[in-house]
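Hi R.,

Here's the chain you asked about this morning:
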Amino acid sequence: MQPNHDLIFKTLADPSRRALFERMCREGEQTVGALTVHAGISQPAVSKHLGVLKQAGLVLGRQDGRNIHYSAQIGALSSLIDWTNQMAGFWENRFDDLEDLLKRMD
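And the predicted structure, written out as tokens:
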């Protein structure tokens, strides 16, 4: 089942989680240690954020010996893309209606 957009918005609202997710999107699979080096937060905090991202379906962990390699699941953003497309269409229609009203008022 695909996670809903409310959970994804809530998960990505945290700047640290968003930065971790963005880094994995840009740079690919990362270990907790590699993510911690650039995160500016402790390793336990990175691990906790990764758990929240995983629970929301935004990352996937792959065990390799003693290390877990995390990768971004970009497809999990599809519900956000659908929602933003719906909102864009809604506002485009509203602005078109406003433009029509203003033309009629002239």
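The longest strand covers residues 59-64.

Let me know if you need anything else.
M.
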